[in-house]
Structures are given as C-alpha cells and as structure tokens.
Amino acid sequence: MEPASDPQTAYRAYGPALVRKAERLLRSREDAIDVVHALFADLIPRWSKDVDLPYLYRAVTNRCLNVVRDRGTRARLLEREQQAAAPVGRVRLDEHIVGVGLIAALADRLDEGHLEVLVARFVDDMTQDEIAEQLGVSRKTVGRRLERIRDEVIALRAEAAG
Amino acid sequence: MNCIGEPISWLRLERFALGGGDVAIRDHVATCAACRHCLDEIERDVVALPPLVVPAKRRRWWKLALPIAGALAAAAVLLLVLRPRPHQEGFASVKGLGEVQLDVVRERGGVIREDVRTFAPGDRFKVIVTCPPARPVWLDVAVVEAGARSADYPLAPTRIVCGNRIVVPGAFTVTGDKPNRVCARFAIAGEPARLLPAATDACITLRPDQ
User: Fold this and answer.
1) A11, A18, A20: best mutation site toward chain B, by most B Cβ within 10 Å?
2) Where are the beta strands (DSSP E) in B20-121?
3) pLDDT class for B85, splitting at 50, 70, 90?
4) Do B16 and A17 touch, CB atoms closer than 8 A?
5) Rounded to two decimals, what is the model's pTM?
C-alpha cells in the first residue's frame, strides 16, 4: 500500500482505520476521533511522503497511551470500560483480555517500548514478527518484552491477591 | 468466538479492507468466523470524521528573506561598481588610458612646494602627471579663470610616456584675483583638441593668496 501524498488524502483513507484502533483502546469513539484528528493536525506542518498506515497506527498507539497515562482521564476510561460491551478477544494474555485497566496499571511499571509491544500484541493482535517489523526491533527483543510484560502482570495479580 | 489459528491483526485486516488483496487473509477469513467477524465490523463501520483543515502554506520568513537579501546584496555591488564617481580634485578617468592624476609644484622666491594650491604674483607652476605606465600619450594643459569663457594654454602640447609623477616640460604663472582651474587633457591618438575643460580632464583649483 502506497503512502499517502498529503495529509488530506491520508486522513480520508486511513482516518477510519485509526479511529477504530484508538476506540479499541479508549472505548470511546468520540475520544478516538479526537486523538486521530489531533494527530493529523499536528502532522500537517511536518508531513512526509513516508507517512503510511503502519506509521500512523504506531502514532495512534502512543497518543492513546498518553491518554491512558493521564491520571485525570484514567478514572473516566476505567469507568467507561466497565459499562462497555466486552471486546472481541482474539489474542489474550494468560486467558485475559487486555483492557484499559490492565494497560493503565502496567503504564506505571513499564516503559514506552514495553507498552507499545503490549498494545501491538494484545490490542492490535499482531504477531511477534509483525511487531518486530512495526517497531523496528528484533523478534527476540519483542519476545523479551512480552516475557517482562507477563512477569509484571503476574506481579500485579499477586499484589492484588495479597 | 475464537480464531482458528493465529488471528489476523487489525492492521492487516484494515489494509485488506482498503484493497490490500492479501490472499492469505482472504483464505483465512473464509474459514475463521472470528476474523471474518472482525473484517465485517471494519467493512460495516462508518466513521464520521470531522473535516481536517489544512492551512495554506506560508512561506517561512527566512525563505522569503534570503532571496531579498541576495537581491539587495547584488544591487549594492552593482551600485558600487556602476555608480558615477564624484569628481575627485586632480583625478580623471580617460577612455583608453585609465586613471590619471594632475598635480602642480609651486616655486615662490626659490622655494619649491608640492602641497599648496594658492598663488600670488610671481609664482611659477610646473605640472606633474601620473598615468598608467609605459603608455605614450599627448598632454595639453589649460588654465581657466573663474567665470571666463575661454581657456589659456600656457604650455605647448607635449608627448609623454606615462608613469608616476612625470614632470611636464615648461612652467607657467597665474595672475589675477580669482581662482583658476588648471586642467590636464590627455589624448592617445594625437594632440588633444583645445576645448574648454570637461569632466574627462584632470583638474585642480589654484586660489589667490588671501
């Protein structure tokens, strides 16, 4: 798929896909549209011909993670998640669907690189090979990060139980 | 609803929905209800995006300033090169010869001075010229009293070989109580015409002593 030549074309072509992706994380179409619109508005002055859907996908991940990290909006997101219908779960983390609650909890424990892998694997349902290509790291690195994520989830559950 | 194997990522499904034409995805969704359901969701979904306003491109100030600065610099250089130079006392530019300079030496009561521009009865003046070396040229000296409509030619036209501070043969005196213009007219081809001094002649002014 060719990169879009200008922001308007990319917005029209990829905007809906990006909104759906953001909505899976934020559980709100309104917030998702805001994130995508703000992303394009910021990209306009520094638009590059290399901007394609995978690049924008990753940018939306980072923007959504910023929203989740924000403690002011986190409570609202968690409340919304409880009211929303359960997402279609395909890739699960130890038989659990990864939602805002878990991502928010892990956001305090993991760095950006690990959180990107977390979202790519358990929200975007990417394979390890896809993640490696998307993030520009080796498959081994992706595997290591997934191991770390599992360890943190186990630790979180142990803390919650104890 | 679970995927029958490795789920197709949302990104790949989105690209497929955009017309990616990936055969592996087509085959997978044909048999996997979970991924088929996800693809259907994408294809059914309608997203009402707000308009994206792309501001008209503004040229950055420095992009505009650079050509202007360049043009100004070029204009300044042209002005410097092409500007009409103010006529400097004693200097002139002669076509085919170049820059020439006229100076005089005054002899008063046996005292010779080069740095004076005044005269008194009895003073004798000699003309000294400087012109591009090794060029034989014709030279004529004219003296014009202020307000006069004609010039005196106290020296005979002479042929000199240019160089630094060439002393022109002969001497002359200046009389009267008005300033006098002393001019040297150069010519390459032959004796210069005896016309009133012009801007192309090298001239100095001798003033009467107060």
Assistant:
1) A20
2) 91-94, 98-108, 111-113, 118-119
3) low
4) no
5) 0.58
